[in-house]
C-alpha cells in the first residue's frame, strides 16, 4: 500500500485483510468489486482524453471526384469540400443554391433531379451537420 495508491484500491485492500468486519466471503467480493469499478473508471477517463471521431466526407466523395467535378469553376477558393457541405445542407432545407454547385451535386450523385438529397447526399449531409456542430460555421 503506497501513499499514491487510489482510495478505492486502499479500500479494496482493507476489505481483503482478516480484520475485516464483514464475513470473509463478503469482504473478498467487496474488494473485487472495488477493484473492478476502479479499473472501469480508469478506462472511462482514458476514453474522455481521446479525441472524438470526426467523420470524413472523402469516403462519400473522393478527392479525385471532387476535383473533377469542380474543374473549370471559380468559387474564389480551392477548398471545395466545405462549399459542398454547405450546399448539401442548404438543399436539405429547401434553400436555393447556385446553378453551378447544384449541377456539381447532381453530377456527384448527392441530389436528385428534384433537388432532394439521395442516399449518398444524406451521408454527406450527416457529416456536414456534424462538422457544423463541432467546428461551427
Structural summary, described in words:
With 137 residues, this protein is mainly α. It is 60% helix and 0% strand. The chain has helices at 7-15, 24-49, 63-70, 80-92, 99-107, 119-135. Helix 1 (7-15) runs antiparallel to helix 2 and helix 4 packs across helix 6. The protein is elongated and about 75 Å long. It starts with 6 loop residues before the first helix and ends with a helix. The model has no long low-confidence stretch (mean pLDDT 81).
Proportion of beta-strand residues: under 5%
Distance between the termini: 52 Å
Main sheet record: none
What is the chain-wise order of helices and strands? HHHHHH
Sequence-ordered SSE layout with sheet pairings:
Layout: H1 7-15, H2 24-49, H3 63-70, H4 80-92, H5 99-107, H6 119-135
Helix pairs in contact: 1-2, 4-6
Quick structural overview:
This protein is mostly helical and 137 residues long.
Considering the chains and any ligands shown, give keywords for the structure.
6 helices; mainly alpha; 137 residues
Amino acid at each position: 500500500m503506497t501513499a499514491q495508491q487510489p482510495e478505492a484500491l486502499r479500500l479494496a485492500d482493507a476489505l481483503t485483510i482478516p480484520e475485516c468486519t464483514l464475513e470473509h466471503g463478503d469482504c473478498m467480493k467487496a474488494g473485487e468489486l472495488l477493484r473492478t469499478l476502479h479499473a472501469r473508471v480508469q478506462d472511462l477517463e482514458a476514453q474522455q482524453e481521446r479525441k472524438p471521431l470526426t467523420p470524413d466526407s472523402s469516403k462519400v466523395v473522393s478527392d479525385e471526384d471532387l476535383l473533377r467535378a469542380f474543374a473549370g469553376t471559380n468559387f474564389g477558393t480551392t477548398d471545395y469540400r466545405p462549399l459542398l457541405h454547405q450546399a448539401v445542407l442548404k438543399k436539405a432545407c429547401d434553400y436555393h443554391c447556385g446553378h453551378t454547385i447544384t449541377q456539381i451535386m447532381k453530377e456527384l450523385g448527392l441530389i436528385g433531379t428534384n433537388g432532394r438529397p439521395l442516399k449518398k447526399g444524406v451521408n454527406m449531409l450527416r457529416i456536414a451537420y456534424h462538422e457544423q456542430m463541432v467546428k461551427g460555421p
